[in-house]
Recover the amino acids of this structure.
């Protein structure tokens, strides 16, 4: 029979255990405000909440602060590391303080993108068409890897162009306006992105001796000790993977809906149970204390 002290110690132990479990059942995910990151981070949120009983917070941030957040342990995972090119500098800088949880999407491509009706096909032809493009390349947020690489491309190809900083949504809005009027525009672009399903676009070709962009993957990076402190979450994030058709379908659904992103992601989850249940660890279950 337990003494009063024993009962008290046991109660404290149960309370502590509940608190630890509740802490383990939380996720703080950081993403970049790009179409694909918005899409599958919201999807991860609803799967974790609905299928695994988690409390989830998702935060949009520029690339640099996102890496800093997980390197310092202020967030659990950064959902969008583009390797081996776009985020190479960031990865090299933070490699010792973060953990690669795996590939969420394989087959990325990035570069300079123009509408198909534009009558040039390569980066080296841009200077000859400077007037048609008003001497501008429409970019996104300054800290993005695609912006750094584009600046390197401008220097490598000696382009007489200004790289204009904006954001992902602002870039696609400018592209849509130009496209509707069949005006010439060149933007920083990447796949996966819904714009390739909406508009008839092409990547400008690189010279063989000046290839600064290549294909690659999107990885999810976790903070140090995530696998030890939240093994279930780390396992789930490692299992996450979307094919090109799956991610394209999700991105288009979110982009074309007036509903909140989370609402659309939840509907997509319900319509694609066979996809998302492969991510949920076999022993994951919702528990109440």
């Amino acid at each position: 029979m337990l003494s009063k002290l024993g009962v008290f110690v046991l109660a404290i132990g149960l309370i502590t255990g509940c608190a630890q479990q509740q802490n383990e059942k939380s996720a703080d995910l950081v993403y970049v405000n790009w179409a694909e990151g918005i899409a599958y981070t919201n999807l991860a949120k609803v799967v974790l909440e609905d299928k695994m009983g988690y409390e989830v917070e998702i935060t949009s941030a520029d690339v640099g602060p996102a890496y800093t957040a997980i390197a310092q342990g202020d967030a659990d995972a950064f959902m969008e590391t583009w390797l081996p090119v776009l985020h190479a500098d960031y990865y090299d800088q933070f490699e010792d303080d973060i953990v690669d949880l795996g590939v969420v999407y394989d087959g990325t491509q990035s570069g300079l993108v123009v509408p198909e009706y534009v009558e040039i096909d390569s980066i080296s032809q841009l200077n000859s068409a400077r007037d048609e493009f008003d001497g501008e390349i429409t970019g996104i947020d300054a800290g993005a890897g695609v912006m750094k690489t584009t600046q390197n491309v401008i220097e490598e190809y000696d382009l007489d162009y200004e790289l204009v900083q904006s954001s992902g949504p602002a870039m696609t809005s400018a592209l849509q306006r130009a496209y509707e009027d069949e005006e010439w525009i060149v933007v920083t672009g990447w796949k996966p992105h819904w714009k390739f399903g909406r508009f008839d676009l092409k990547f400008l070709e690189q010279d063989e001796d000046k290839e600064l962009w290549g294909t690659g993957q999107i990885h999810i990076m976790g903070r140090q000790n995530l696998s030890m402190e939240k093994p279930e979450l780390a396992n789930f994030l490692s299992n996450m993977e979307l094919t090109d058709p799956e991610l394209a379908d999700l991105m288009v659904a979110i982009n074309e809906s007036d509903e909140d992103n989370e609402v659309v992601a939840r509907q997509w989850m319900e319509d694609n149970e066979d996809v998302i249940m492969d991510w949920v660890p076999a022993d994951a279950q919702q528990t109440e204390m």
Notes: The CA atoms of residues 176 and 199 lie 8 Å apart. The two ends are 24 Å apart (CA to CA).
